[in-house]
């Protein structure tokens, strides 16, 4: 079953390759969506794909790449839309 998760990650998550590693994890699991830095220092991501793959990506966000220090992860489950063709780093 296809699922969607909207994730906000807090902590030392910018400047530690969080976006690049998130994209890599998402692509490994055939997920679509995006990841971006927020002005307040958080990282935001949307994952869409098979339920187990989405859950693996969400779980990875609790740890992040080696130099990250994740303090909090907020996950909102949303209806699957199928609006994305790939997983990308967004700058909007």
Q: Can you tell me about this structure?
A:
The protein has a single domain (2-81), classed as Alpha-Beta Plaits (2-Layer Sandwich), CATH 3.30.70.100. With 92 residues, it is of the alpha+beta class. The longest helix is centred in the N-terminal third of the chain and has 11 residues, at 18-28. It is 24% helix and 41% strand. It has a 5-stranded mixed sheet. The protein has helices at residues 18-28, 51-61; strands spanning 2-12, 32-37, 43-50, 69-78, 87-89. The protein contains 2 helices and 5 strands.
Brief account:
This protein has about 90 residues and is of the alpha+beta class. It has two helices and five strands, in the order E-H-E-E-H-E-E.
Q: What is the secondary structure topology, with strand pairs?
A:
Blueprint: E1 2-12, H1 18-28, E2 32-37, E3 43-50, H2 51-61, E4 69-78, E5 87-89
N-to-C series of helices and strands = EHEEHEE
What would the principal axes of the Cα set say about the shape? globular
Calculate Rg over CA atoms: 12 Å
| Widest β-sheet, arrangement of strands | 4-1-3-2-5
User: Class, according to the CATH hierarchy?
Assistant: Alpha Beta
Low-confidence stretches: none
In the residues, how many domains can be counted?
1
Query: The CATH topology is what?
Result: Alpha-Beta Plaits
Number of helices: 2
Provide key terms for this protein:
5 strands, 2 helices, Alpha-Beta Plaits, 24% helix, five-stranded mixed sheet, alpha+beta, 92 residues, globular
């Amino acid at each position: 079953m296809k699922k969607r998760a909207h994730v906000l990650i807090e902590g030392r998550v910018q400047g530690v390759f969080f976006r690049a590693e998130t994209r890599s994890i998402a692509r490994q699991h055939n997920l679509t969506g995006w990841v971006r830095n927020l002005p307040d220092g958080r990282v935001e991501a949307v994952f869409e794909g098979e339920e187990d793959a989405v859950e693996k990506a969400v779980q990875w966000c609790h740890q992040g790449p080696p130099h990250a220090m994740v303090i909090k992860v907020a996950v909102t489950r949303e209806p699957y839309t199928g609006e994305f063709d790939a997983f990308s780093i967004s700058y909007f």
